[in-house]
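User: Hi! I have a protein structure encoded as tokens and I'd like to know what sequence might fold into it. I'm fairly new to this, so please keep things simple.
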């Protein structure tokens, strides 16, 4: 196993564990007080968010670990990236700038997995270079915008 592959596996497992821990409480309806704003959302929406997080977690690891449709791993990483970028907007609407930064960084990790795994899948499915450039062209400004919004004014102390 080369170093890049080892790093990618480590990051995939870490992100999968995070999303499993984040999604499971939303599915079962316990422990939601850890997250702000979920009490205001309809229960079916919270369940849907939890389901996408748990499926994303499984998709980050299981396809490549089992060798069954391994090309789903980079697609799961893209899906996780989309979930957390949408969460970034949710946090910005609630004026939770630190949480918005955190979710922007999770999106960056998901993008690294998607890009790193795109050429490593056993089926040799390759993304055109333009797709990867477009993904980076969208992700980098998203992170920069998060940083600008976060640090434009001081964090509320209340």
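Assistant: Happy to help. Inverse folding works backwards from shape to sequence: for each of the 158 positions I chose a residue that suits the local structure. Here it is:
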């Amino acid at each position: 196993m080369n170093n890049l592959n080892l790093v990618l596996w480590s990051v995939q497992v870490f992100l999968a564990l995070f999303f499993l821990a984040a999604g499971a409480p939303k599915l079962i309806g316990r422990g939601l007080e850890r997250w702000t704003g979920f009490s205001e959302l309809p229960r079916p929406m919270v369940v849907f968010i939890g389901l996408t997080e748990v499926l994303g977690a499984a998709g980050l690891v299981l396809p490549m670990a089992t060798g069954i449709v391994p090309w789903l791993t980079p697609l799961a990483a893209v899906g996780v990236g989309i979930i957390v970028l949408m969460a970034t907007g949710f946090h910005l609407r609630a004026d939770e700038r630190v949480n918005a930064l955190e979710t922007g960084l999770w999106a960056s990790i998901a993008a690294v997995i998607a890009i790193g795994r795109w050429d490593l899948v056993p089926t040799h499915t390759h993304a055109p270079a333009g797709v990867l450039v477009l993904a980076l062209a969208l992700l980098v400004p998203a992170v920069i915008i998060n940083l600008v919004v976060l640090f434009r004014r001081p964090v509320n102390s209340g």
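A useful reference point when you look it over: The chain has one domain: 3-151. Feel free to ask if any position seems puzzling.
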